[in-house]
Specification:
The chain starts with a helix and ends in a 7-residue tail after the last strand. The protein contains seven helices and 25 strands. The longest helix is centred in the N-terminal third of the chain and has 16 residues. Helices cover about 15% and strands about 30% of the residues. It has about 375 residues and is an alpha+beta fold. The chain is elongated and about 80 Å long. The structure holds 2-acetamido-2-deoxy-beta-D-glucopyranose (6 copies).
Length: about 375
């Protein structure tokens, strides 16, 4: 609230001072390097919530002028901690003005001028009105890759083990550049993190767990309209190789791939037939991409199986039932929130973690729901 208030004050004072203001919407103009960059003082910043969303990448000898020319086309440029440069059309909502004393560090490229301080940004404005803001969203998938949501990540134990360089560097990172880089290196999983990092792998580390998308709250340096993970949080993508599991027959053939037969008899198997009340297996579905895909969650159960879940849903009059993450059971009359069947090899390999009620049976996975349907309840 305070930050909003301060920002609107700043905005109106900028408007009042601005010599040439253009209120019309314009496509980004990258030729205005000669813009009059005006100092706006010292502003707070932190690594979890960057005040300016784009990385300026001004090289090793940073000066304010160099950063501004890197930020040509953006409304704001800012230098920090002697050698960092950030650009953006907006300040984030939680920054606040600091005393000039907080921006005390000399620039790496000129020791007669200051380039911010620790968590403090020397801010400049190019004098033009900011364009209308675009909402940031999760890129649902591109080039055959599908979003698997947001996962935890740790420096000591990477969710995907191979950090890779993407074309034109961190400051240009987009989801598409990352998945294409991982795809051309032969990997089936890719992930973007901390605005500018790209990781590849064929499997996730054991410690990785699904997290709420709000932990993946950082825009990509190369595309401010989409998320590229967060601090210790990775937006994960998988490449779709397997065909859709359209029937119980094809679903059971999917679980019979070599990966499922390598280990001992304890490997849980997807239950695709023999269920009560007319329920049939509908494949593995992505959950939580835009919210829960079945609307009624039953209490977690220490004795869950697909059969127990479908019976619960049947008794309550729901035609859809879904099991997820060992112990969760969901019911619904329809699939909601844009639910879709997950067909990637990643999904098929990770959709049958052991049920709490029977470790030989599969009960979905993290954000992956094994879905069942019966038309026997449609009259209720
Ligand atoms: C700032 O970062 C924290 C931690 O990642 C996050 O919970 C919070 O929502 C962020 N705030 C904003 C305004 O982005
Ligand atoms: C940075 O400055 C140093 C010292 O002045 C100089 O030797 C070096 O070539 C400069 N590097 C670049 C990339 O300009
Ligand atoms: C930027 O992100 C949006 C949202 O994900 C996407 O539609 C668009 O294609 C992306 N642009 C580029 C150049 O990657
Ligand atoms: C990843 O998996 C794919 C498909 O199974 C395989 O072709 C590729 O060699 C693997 N890549 C690495 C680096 O293990
Ligand atoms: C389901 O998939 C299998 C193998 O991919 C295919 O042969 C079959 O025709 C499909 N069935 C339906 C109903 O689409
Ligand atoms: C329910 O599904 C079965 C099997 O697909 C079908 O034979 C039956 O006619 C269906 N009943 C209704 C009421 O749709």
């Amino acid at each position: 609230m305070l930050a909003h208030f301060v920002l609107s004050l700043l905005g109106s004072s900028l408007l009042a001072q601005g010599a040439v203001l253009n209120h019309k919407q314009q496509p980004r103009d990258t030729t205005d390097a000669a813009a009059q960059w005006a100092p706006q003082g010292c502003w707070s910043d932190n690594r979890h919530n960057r005040t300016l969303a784009a990385l300026g990448d001004a090289g090793t000898n940073v000066t304010n002028v160099k950063c501004q020319s890197r930020c040509a086309g953006y409304r704001y440029a800012g230098t920090e901690y002697s050698g960092e440069c950030y650009c953006g059309d907006y300040l984030n909502s939680i920054t606040s003005p600091l005393s000039d004393l907080a921006c005390y560090m000399t620039c790496t490229g000129d020791d007669t001028e200051t380039c911010g301080g620790p968590n403090a940004l020397s801010l400049y404005w190019d004098g033009q009105a900011a364009p209308a803001s675009t909402p940031i969203s999760v890129n649902a998938g591109v080039d055959g890759w599908t979003s698997q949501g947001c996962y935890t990540d740790q420096v000591g134990s990477r969710t995907l083990s191979n950090g890779v360089a993407t074309p034109r560097g961190a400051s240009s990172l987009t989801v598409q550049l990352c998945v294409d880089t991982c795809g051309s290196a032969g990997y089936t999983l890719a992930g973007v993190e901390y605005s500018g990092e790209c990781y590849c792998g064929n499997s996730t580390s054991t410690g990785a767990v699904a997290e709420d998308q709000s932990a993946c709250n950082m825009p990509c340096y190369g595309n401010g309209s989409e998320y590229c993970g967060g601090a210790n949080a990775i937006n994960l993508y998988s490449f779709a190789i397997a065909p859709p599991a359209n029937t119980s027959t094809s679903a059971s053939s999917a679980t019979a791939t070599p990966t499922a037969t390598q280990s001992t008899s304890a490997t849980p198997t997807m239950v695709t037939s023999g269920l009560p009340d007319g329920y049939t297996y509908q494949g593995c579905w992505a959950d939580l991409t835009n919210g829960r895909i079945l609307s009624v969650q039953q209490p977690d159960s220490a004795t869950l199986t697909p059969a127990s879940c479908v019976s619960t849903c049947y008794t309550a009059g729901y035609s859809y039932a879904g099991v997820e993450w060992s112990k969760q059971c969901f019911c619904g009359k329809a699939i909601v929130n844009g639910g879709y069947q997950a067909v990637s090899s990643y999904a098929l390999q990770n959709c049958h973690v052991a049920c709490t009620g029977d470790t030989t049976q599969g009960c979905g996975g993290s954000r992956l729901m094994a879905l069942y349907y019966s038309n026997a309840t449609t009259s209720s």
